[in-house]
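Dear U.,

For the methods section draft, I wanted the exact inputs and outputs in one place so we can describe them consistently. I've listed the two proteins in the order they'll appear in the manuscript figures. Please don't edit the token lines directly; just add comments below if something needs changing.

First protein:
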Amino acid sequence: MDLAKIQQEIRNQELDGWLFFDHHLRDPLAYRVLELTPPRTPTRRWYYLIPATGAPRALEHRIERGMTGDLPGERHVYSSWVEQVEGLRKMTAGLKRIAMQYSPMCAIPVVSMVDGGTIELVRSIGVEVVSSAELIQSFEARWTPEALESHLEAGRRVDKVRAQAFALIRERTRNGAPLREVEVKNLVREGFAKAGLITDHGPIVGVNANASNPHYEPTEEASSPVRPGDWVLIDMWAKLDRPGAVYYDITWTGFCGDNPPEEMRKVFGVVRDARDAAIRRVTEAIAARQALCGFEVDDACRSVIAGAGYGEYFTHRTGHSIGVEVHGNGANMDNLENHDVRRVAPWTCFSIEPGIYLPHFGVRSEVNMFVGDREAQVTGEVQREVQLL
């Protein structure tokens, strides 16, 4: 555990401390931030307080001593619930505002690890409890230079596999040979393996109405044919097969033929313009060193789609945090599913992926954005026009 770094982040957030709590391995975030491997599953509650300055303090049950391992700081014990409350009171003496893994109204579910009763308990001893969401982002979502390079290299490899997938669709549909969605999916997975890439599942390969299901994934048992005149959406994500690598996640769309219907061109154009509006919102704010929250990026994107009359068909957030897991624990670009007030922080990455999902076809255009210290950039190829297959 990097105590100095944690305490600096606590001071940056103008907090008095960060209180960690667990029972029955409820909070994986606590163990990752503290770099703590539990000796066994805790059947009694433990607490670990890191103050903004000074030595940390732990509170453990008498029959489960050692649950906080070799973490630095004083150790206190309790048996009864009365002792527990008094122990918490002593731990937090002199502190006014502390962070816990809590999110008001569960606005950020990935941070809401501490149950409501425990929050009530801590507040009952006279301490204000605020969300640790920004602190978690600092330790879970910020990349290293090595992580960024792994992302860029994964992007180069994924983009090549994406081109191969579209080439297969073009060849088969132009030659009149049969093709199913699942065959394209299998080609992508084989391409990933050959390129030294891994993924948790996917990709999404959806034709026509299937492209309107944001989480559709073909299988051997359920897979539509791909034919001339069809609309095709491919959403693919992967990372290098090595420790610490982070994901690259994109979505492209194409038409099997030379002349897409005007409606398809129009909807693609609206989605593209919404994507670009979100990109501009981020790049301009970061360049001007202005504070920017995830919900504001979603607003910039969503307003374009709503203004074009398709607001009801954009049914998910604009983007998600990206890390060693494809959906990371940093700020999401979201003011629909949740009101994400987390800052778009330096050295983090997220997707920008607006979509319009009509009954007979769907369009999504997804890029990844990395935010550096004073600049933001799209990290891979960007689709500007409908891919003609």
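Second protein (the one for the lower panel):
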Amino acid sequence: MSPHAALTPDTLAPHASAAHAEHYDPVACKIGMWLFLFTEVLLFGTLFIVFAVYLTLHHFDFASGSRQLDKLLGAANTMILLTSSLTMALAIAAMQRSNRRLSVALLTATLLLGLAFLGIKAHEWHHKFEHDLYPRSATMLANPYGQQVFYGLYYTMTGLHALHVIVGCGAIVSAMVLIRLGRVRADRIAFIDNTGLYWHLVDAIWILLFPLFYLIG
């Protein structure tokens, strides 16, 4: 091949495409994630304000509703999520040191802890449904209005939080796949780093939900 042939557009196109595919901007990724997390804070912050207002108006009924929740299950889920935050942080640290195997193992532990949280929450919800304690049920409608509001907020806020845990678990699985494929590595860590930020936010929200719903009684 002549020197001129090596510089033809047809020859350069694959290289240009490869360079475009390898574009990586960790700063933009981090800014985008922080903006997204800010919207999540606004969403849950609004719900926390609504809770505070109704708690002031119906403190006795909220306390009565709180006493019907299982504090041991709530505390167990709190410990599970706190532990998952630790394993997530260790997974990121392992990836920064190019220890792919350890990072995947720690992400797997984080995923299992997240699934354990969801399992306990599903068991808790199932128990409440068995006792006819859910919005618009006959038993619920017979309760004082304040308790109806309490359970309405309980299902709304813990359900929304559980949905975020499910999304977080999906992101963890994606991170593990990308590590296996070599798309996430020590010099390209933005995805797992942002996954960790999201997971820590989910954990922080639960740390606020636990005392609000389980301990005010």
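Candidate sentences for the figure legend, describing the second protein: The helical segments are 9-21, 26-57, 59-67, 71-96, 100-130, 138-142, 145-181, 190-215. Residues 25-215 form a domain with the Four Helix Bundle (Hemerythrin (Met), subunit A) fold (CATH 1.20.120.80).

Thanks,
Y.
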